[in-house]
Design goal:
21 helices, OB fold (Dihydrolipoamide Acetyltransferase, E2P), seven-stranded parallel sheet, six-stranded parallel sheet, Rossmann fold, alpha/beta, DNA polymerase, domain 1
């Protein structure tokens, strides 16, 4: 047995209690400690002469103890130990609280390395409770020192001891990257990477190590996604008979766009091709994803099979039902709605009909994945706003039948390259055009001084029968924050300024049922102005909503602003979006200018990628995908792209990774963690 597989309790000073603290961090062996990467580093590589050590900053100094430490009791429970140290440039006072034992550890005439925050003045400097070690040891001074994620009761010192012991056995590590890949992408050896990511010899070595470890994590991720994609492509699916989609188009009250027709054709080809469909329909707000879903449900029903559509909230599920049920009825297709609030008697009747095949299309919430929901002839499952569901939830719905086809929908425009990275296990259809005749939401960027004019505009919109969203970045005012940035404070102030309108408040601290009720009241017009954080429902249709005001718009990404803007302009009235920002930064102005001039979600996403990086697309972790230990989708995109190319290269030569058993095992471990 290797040393890296040794139990964490083999470490000096780690008994059962300390071991439990390591277990909380997922660390059970010495090898696990190697995978527990530092979250940052303290630069202790430079030693300052005492005279040049900057006051107010953390510094390392080399100094000789000038006198024996003296300790005195200030009061019960409080002692102070003082000493003085010097170097060629000057002297410094050292003060320790409640550490009388230091009198035996810091010896007069011996040189020590000290690290701490320099206090006092240029002429009289002091260190309070500095860390120290004998000069030349170099464990906690004179280097880049790792800072690890810890848990209560687990000291930094003990974690340092654990990782320093683990890296003694890096010769037991096996290289999982081919030599060809390492050379092609200029990657260091695995042993060098792990040694220097924990205890880098210098900054350049740290960068080399990070590059290698991040690349490998992305590489395993890309291999896993591509293997999943291959499985989906090759998996057998229920073979349906092709029916011309034009037959379904005839019952629509509008003519589908070219993008909608293309997506329907792609989905129909999947469903009738003998292989299992696993497709993402990605489109801008209002691009018509629901119509594509309806066409697929129609095809399943035409074949005498059943389909299910799952939405993240009861309100959104109900809106889907209300829009789809009339269409299905015209086609002679039975359609039902199942949610958590469906009465027991009605539910029992519905489930009985479902089991007998009398219901062809079932629309609902998470209630669809309950064990007692049994389909007679399932062929298709659809999840809306797929980022709101975990992979496991999607899988539970999928597992309602054997070889069922799967369609997922997302209203988040993502540049196609990033979409392919995120949804590597899915085929992607992009709806990149809006229905003709839809009015553009006029967008303006204004300073806070416009707020009185906005109050008047709110009243005007409400008087004309419109409704208003106001989005704030904070729920409640935090210390140092402007009250206007708080949804709670804004709603209260607005009630005073505009008392003649009904105002609702929604934020993440409300219970799910409370949020749904507020949203329901807004949909029904009982609330005229909704002040909210970004929790306002994605996808919910409020046709009378004609004005969106976003406070402190500079705090939001462009893609997020575009999503918010998409909450209005769903009816036939002219709609507006006003972005309020006090920022005078040139970058902020450029970002807001993009919003006022561009209405294409994909172009905005590309602009956001250039201006801010891809972080906005990954603000919410994609449930069921691996949570990276060190790689960052928002910062390391170029490495992700390289890793993806490398994965394609390896899988072309070894499609099932049978010649790469270690890599295959690491991929399995990575995706297994994601599903726990």
């Amino acid at each position: 047995m290797s040393h890296l597989t040794d139990d964490i309790r083999t470490l000096r000073g780690v008994g059962e209690k300390k071991a439990q603290l390591f277990h909380k961090l997922g660390l059970f062996t010495l090898g696990d400690c190697l995978e527990h990467f530092p979250r940052e580093y303290e630069d202790r590589s430079r030693f300052y002469p005492i005279a040049q050590a900057p006051v107010g900053e953390n510094c390392c100094i080399l100094a000789t103890v000038a006198q024996p430490p003296s300790t005195r009791l200030i009061r019960k429970g409080l002692s102070i130990t003082k000493l003085r140290a010097f170097d060629e440039s000057g002297q410094i006072d050292l003060v320790y609280f409640n550490q009388p034992y230091l009198s035996s550890q810091l010896r007069q005439g011996e040189e020590y390395a000290f690290f701490g925050k320099i206090e006092g003045t240029l002429l009289k400097k002091q260190l309070t409770n500095p860390q120290f070690e004998p000069a030349g040891r170099g464990m906690i001074t004179g280097r880049l020192l790792p800072v690890y994620r810890l848990t209560g009761g687990l000291s930094r010192t003990l974690m340092l001891q654990a990782t320093s012991q683990a890296i003694q056995y890096t010769d037991e590590l096996t290289e999982s990257l081919d030599e060809e890949i390492r050379q092609q992408y200029d990657l260091c050896h695995i042993r060098y990477a792990y040694e220097n990511i924990h205890y880098p010899v210098h900054r350049e070595a740290l960068e080399e190590a990070r590059k290698r470890v991040i690349f490998e994590e992305f590489f395993q991720f890309a291999c896993g996604l591509q293997l999943m994609g291959q499985q989906n492509i090759t998996a057998q699916g229920i073979g349906l008979t092709w029916y011309p989609p034009e037959e379904f188009y005839q019952v629509l009250p509008f003519s589908p766009t070219g993008a909608q027709r293309r997506a329907v054709h792609e989905a129909f080809a999947d469903m009738t091709g003998g292989k299992r469909m696993s497709r993402l329909v990605q489109g801008d707000v209002g691009s018509g994803k629901t119509m594509v879903a309806a066409a697929c449900l129609w095809l399943a029903a035409k074949n005498g099979m059943q389909g299910a559509l799952m939405a993240p909230t009861e309100l959104l599920a109900r809106q889907h039902y209300e829009s789809l049920q009339p269409l299905m009825e015209q086609c002679g297709i039975s359609c039902a709605l199942l949610t958590g609030s469906t009465p027991k008697k009605q539910r029992e009747t519905m489930l009985e009909k479902l089991g007998q095949g009398e219901i062809s299309v079932l629309i609902g919430t998470h209630a669809l994945i309950e064990n007692n929901v049994v389909f007679c002839r399932p062929a298709l499952t659809i999840t809306d706003e797929q980022h709101r569901f975990g992979v496991q939830q999607r899988q539970l719905l999928w597992d309602k039948g054997a070889d069922t086809h799967s369609l997922v929908m997302s209203a988040t425009p993502i540049p196609r390259t990033l979409a392919l990275m995120l949804y590597g296990d899915l085929q992607v259809s992009v709806l990149d055009e809006l229905p003709p005749g839809r009015k553009r939401v006029e967008t303006y960027a204004v300073p806070p001084s416009y707020r009185p004019r906005l109050d008047a505009f709110i009243q005007k919109q409400v008087q004309e029968g419109g409704q208003v969203y106001i989005v704030c970045p904070l729920i409640e005012t935090e210390e140092g924050e402007d009250e206007r940035q708080s949804a709670v404070a804004y709603a209260k102030a607005l009630e005073q300024r505009v008392p003649q309108v009904s105002i609702g408040l929604m934020h993440g601290k409300l219970k799910s049922r409370e949020k749904e009720q507020v949203m329901e009241d807004f949909v029904q017009g009982k609330i005229q102005v909704l002040v909210s954080t970004t929790v306002i429902e994605v996808g919910v249709n409020v046709p009378r909503a004609s004005l969106m005001i976003v406070e402190d718009a500079d705090r939001f990404g462009l893609s997020q602003l575009h999503q918010l803007r998409g909450r209005v302009g769903r009816g036939d009235r002219q709609s507006y979006c006003v972005l309020v920002s006090a920022s005078k930064s040139a970058k902020t102005q450029e970002r807001l200018r993009v919003m006022t001039q561009c209405h294409d979600g994909f172009r905005i996403a590309e602009a956001d990628l250039k201006l801010r990086g891809p972080g906005d697309f990954f603000g919410d972790r994609q449930h069921g995908l691996p949570e990276f230990k060190i790689a960052d989708l928002s910062q390391d995109v170029s490495l992700l792209q390289n890793a993806q190319q490398a994965a394609q290269q390896v899988l072309r030569q070894d499609p099932d990774l049978s010649s790469h058993p270690l890599l295959l095992e690491k991929v399995k471990q990575l995706f297994h963690r994601a599903r726990q």
